[in-house]
Write a structure and sequence with these properties.
- By secondary structure, the protein is α/β, with parallel strands linked by helices.
- It folds into two domains: 356 residues, Spore Coat Polysaccharide Biosynthesis Protein SpsA, Chain A, CATH 3.90.550; 223 residues, no CATH class.
- The chain is 17% helix and 33% strand.
- The strands form ten sheets. The protein has an eight-stranded mixed sheet, with helices on both faces. It has a six-stranded mixed sheet with strand order 24-26-30-32-34-35, with no helix packed on it. Strands 1-2-16-17-21 form a five-stranded antiparallel sheet.
- It is globular, with a radius of gyration of 26 Å.
- This is UGP3-like C-terminal hexapeptide repeats domain-containing protein.
- InterPro entries: Hexapep_UGP3_C, Nucleotide-diphossugar_trans, UDP-sugar_pyrophosphorylase, UDPGP_fam.
- Keywords: Nucleotidyltransferase, Transferase.
Length: 637
C-alpha cells in the first residue's frame, strides 16, 4: 500500500521534489509523489459539458454507494425528544435530513435522464451503515417512513460495517466501558469494499445491470452541484476507467487528504504509475505542514481528496475478493480523534483516542499501470485512474462539526456549508440577469445571518445550463427568501423583496402503486407547474432579528410570505401583477390558478385542467441535446 511504502519517522525530512528513495526488497526501488494533472472542468467547459452528457446517458449503467457508518462525534447531534445521539445522516439541513438530500440529488439526475430520453431510470443504492448511535436502525426507519423515497425497497441494499476497539493515544491502553467491553467505533470507510463483496453487493449491482458506481459521503452537501458528479461518472464509463476522483483546491487546515500521482520503479526495471491519495492523518508522518500553505508545502501544490469517487464495479470487486490486505486499503492508526465515553462507574471521559482504520479511496493503490520506460509528463492520460477538478464549492462543503458559541470559524460547520450553497445560488442566478447581493467571506456572517436564503430543488437542473434557461431577469433583494420545490418552473422578470415559497407535492412526477404494493415515483407524470412573469413580490418576509432562527436548518420566523402550494398536478400562473403582503395560494389537484390584474385589484381565476392535459399539463419544458449542450423549449398545449 502507498502509505506503508511512504512510512517514515516524523523526524525524517522530505526532499525538495517530494520524492522518496526507498529500498524495500518486496516492493520497489524508487517511489515518487508528484502533483497530478487533472481534467479541469472549470476551464475546459466544452469537454465538461460533453462528459456530463456521457454521465446522463450512462445512468442506466450506474449504481450509487453511500458510506454512512461513521459516528460523526464532532457534530454532537442528539434527538431533541429522547436525548439520544444521532448519526450524521439524520442531521436536519435545509429543511430535511442529509440522507434525504442525497436521494433528492440522485432523483434530480434521474429526472434529467427522463426529460432527455423519455425513459424511467431508477439507480440502485447501496448504503453502508453501522451499529454506532443506532445508525442502521435509524436509517432503515427513515427509509421506511418515507416509503423508500418512492423507489421501491428492492432498489436499496443496506449493510453494516463492524466496529473496532479504541485505545488511548497517550498510553496505548484499551478504553473500557466495563470489564471485557472496550469502547468501539466504526473503523473507517475503507472496509466498504470487502464488506460489499462479502454481503453480495457487487452481485446485486450486476443483477440490476450496473457496471460502475458513484460514491459520495453524506456530510458533503454540494457534491452533486452542477456537472461535477455527472462528468466524473461520464468519463469513467466512456473511457473504461477503473477509478476516478473528484477534486478541487485544498483549504489549508482542512481535515481532508490530497490526491497524488504515484511513481514507482519495480525490481524488474519497469515503471508503475497511478493516481491515489494521502490522508490528512498521515501528514505529520511525511512532514507535510498543516498550517498556512507555504511555497514548498504539499498542501499548496496538490488538490484535495474529497472522497467523491467513480468506481468500476468489476475492478473493485477483483480487489475486494482477494482475501488479502489489499481488500482493506490504506490501513492507518488514527490518533487524531477525541473519544467520549462513560466507564462502568458512570464517570464521563473525553480523551484523545486511537483506532485502526482503513481508507475507502486508497483502493486506487491497486490500479497502477506498468510501463517499460519512465514517463516525465502526460502519463495521466494513459492511466486506469483519473481526476476531475472543479471550483471548490461545486465539489465539497461539509457539515462535519457542530459550531460552538465561541467559535469564530464556520469551516466544516452546517453554517459554513449553507453559505457555500448560497454562493452557488448567487453564481447560478447572477448569470440569468437577476440582481442579488453577493455573499461575502465567512467572517462577515459569524455573528449575523446570511444576506438571503435561496433553496432551489435540484431537479430544476441539476446542470446549471438547464436551470439558467428557467430563470431570467428581475432581482432578489437583500434579506429575501426564495424556495422553489418544483421542476416545471419559469421565472421571467420577477422582483422579490421578501419571502417567496413554491411547494409542489409532485415535484418531478407522481407515485403509483406497483405490483408489490409499493409506491413508485413515475417521472414526468402529473407534475406540479408554476410560471411567474413580470411579477413583483413585496412582503415583510423573514424576521431576521429573531434569535430562534436556525438558517442552516431553514427553520425561521416570518412576518409575511407569499406561499404557493401545489397539490398533485396543480398549476399556478401569475402575470403582470404586484403581490404585496401575506398570501397563501393553495391550488387543488387537477386545477390551474391564474393571478392577473383586475379592475379592483388582483383577480384570481381557478379552472379545472382539461382532461387530455391531466398527465402532461398545459405546458412543459422540452429538453433537447444540441451538440454538447442541452436546450430547453417551452411547449404550450
Amino acid at each position: 500500500m502507498v502509505l506503508e511504502l511512504l512510512a517514515q519517522s516524523s523526524s525524517e525530512k522530505q526532499t525538495t521534489n517530494w520524492s522518496h528513495h526507498i529500498q524495500e526488497s518486496m516492493e520497489c526501488e524508487f517511489l515518487g509523489i508528484h502533483a497530478p494533472n487533472v481534467v479541469d472542468l472549470s476551464k475546459n467547459t466544452e469537454y465538461a459539458s460533453q462528459a456530463a452528457l456521457w454521465g446522463i446517458e450512462g445512468l442506466p449503467d450506474l449504481g450509487e454507494i453511500y458510506p454512512l457508518g461513521g459516528s460523526a462525534d464532532r457534530l454532537g447531534l442528539v434527538d431533541p425528544d429522547t436525548g439520544e445521539c444521532l448519526p450524521a445522516a439524520m442531521l436536519p439541513f435545509c429543511g430535511r435530513t442529509l440522507l434525504e438530500g442525497l436521494i433528492r440529488d440522485l432523483q434530480a439526475r434521474e429526472f434529467l435522464h427522463y426529460k432527455l430520453y423519455g425513459k424511467q431510470c431508477i439507480i440502485p443504492v447501496a448504503i453502508m451503515t453501522s451499529s454506532a448511535k443506532n445508525n442502521h436502525e435509524r436509517i432503515t426507519s427513515l427509509c421506511e417512513k418515507l416509503s423508500w423515497f418512492g423507489r421501491g425497497r428492492s432498489s436499496f441494499q443496506l449493510f453494516q460495517q463492524p466496529l473496532v476497539p479504541a485505545v488511548s493515544a497517550e498510553d496505548g491502553q484499551w478504553l473500557i466501558t466495563k470489564p471485557f467491553s472496550p469502547v468501539s467505533k466504526p473503523g473507517g470507510h475503507g472496509v466498504i469494499w470487502k464488506l460489499a463483496y462479502d454481503k453480495g453487493i457487487f452481485e446485486w449491482f450486476y443483477d440490476h445491470g450496473r457496471k460502475g458506481a458513484t460514491v459520495r459521503q453524506v456530510s458533503n452537501v454540494v457534491a452533486a452541484t452542477d456537472l461535477t458528479l455527472l462528468a466524473l461518472a461520464g468519463i469513467g464509463l466512456r473511457h473504461g476507467k477503473k477509478l476516478g476522483f473528484a477534486s478541487c483546491k485544498r483549504n489549508s487546515g482542512a481535515t481532508e487528504g490530497i490526491n497524488v500521482l504515484i511513481e514507482k520503479k519495480t525490481l524488474d526495471g519497469k515503471w508503475a504509475y497511478g493516481l491515489s491519495c494521502i490522508e490528512y492523518t498521515e501528514f505529520d508522518k511525511f512532514g507535510i505542514t498543516s498550517g498556512a500553505c507555504y511555497s514548498n508545502s504539499l498542501q499548496a501544490e496538490f488538490p484535495a481528496n474529497t472522497n467523491i469517487l467513480y468506481v468500476d464495479l468489476s475492478s473493485v470487486e477483483s480487489v475486494a475478493s482477494s482475501n488479502s490486505e489489499k481488500s482493506l486499503p490504506g490501513m492507518v492508526l488514527n490518533t487524531k480523534k477525541q473519544i467520549a465515553y462513560e466507564d462502568s462507574f458512570g464517570n464521563c471521559h473525553s480523551v484523545s483516542g486511537s483506532r485502526l482504520e482503513c481508507t475507502m479511496q486508497n483502493i486506487a493503490d491497486n490500479f497502477l499501470n506498468t510501463y517499460l520506460s519512465r514517463f516525465y509528463q502526460g502519463v495521466e492520460d494513459k492511466l486506469d485512474t483519473f481526476i476531475v477538478y472543479n471550483e471548490r464549492r461545486k465539489v465539497t462543503s461539509s457539515a462535519k462539526r457542530k459550531r460552538k458559541h465561541v467559535d469564530q470559524s464556520l469551516h466544516q460547520t452546517p453554517d459554513g456549508a449553507l453559505l457555500d450553497i448560497l454562493r452557488n445560488a448567487y453564481d447560478l442566478l447572477s448569470c440569468c440577469d437577476i440582481e442579488l447581493p453577493k455573499v461575502e467571506g465567512n467572517d462577515r456572517y459569524v455573528n449575523s445571518g446570511p444576506p438571503f436564503l435561496i433553496f432551489l430543488h435540484p431537479s430544476l437542473g441539476p446542470l446549471w445550463e438547464v436551470t439558467r434557461q428557467k430563470f431570467y431577469g428581475g432581482s432578489i433583494s437583500e434579506g429575501s427568501e426564495l424556495q422553489i420545490e418544483v421542476a416545471e418552473f419559469m421565472w421571467r422578470n420577477v422582483e422579490l423583496d421578501g419571502s417567496l415559497i413554491v411547494i409542489a407535492g409532485n415535484v418531478m412526477g407522481s407515485t403509483r402503486i406497483d405490483a408489490n404494493g409499493e409506491p413508485m415515483l413515475q417521472y414526468g407524470r402529473r407534475c406540479g407547474r408554476c410560471r411567474l412573469q413580470n411579477v413583483k413580490v413585496l412582503n415583510k418576509g423573514i424576521d431576521w432579528s429573531c434569535g430562534e432562527n436556525a438558517y442552516w436548518k431553514h427553520s425561521v420566523q416570518r412576518f409575511e410570505a407569499l406561499k404557493v402550494i401545489l397539490h398533485g398536478n396543480a398549476e399556478f400562473e401569475a402575470n403582470n401583477v404586484i403581490l404585496e403582503g401575506n398570501h397563501v395560494f393553495e391550488v387543488p389537484d387537477g386545477y390551474k390558478m391564474k393571478i392577473i390584474s383586475g379592475n379592483s385589484g388582483l383577480e384570481v381565476q381557478l379552472n379545472p385542467i382539461e382532461p387530455n392535459m391531466m398527465d402532461t399539463g398545459s405546458w412543459f419544458w422540452n429538453y433537447k441535446i444540441n451538440g454538447t449542450h442541452i436546450l430547453l423549449e417551452l411547449v404550450e398545449l
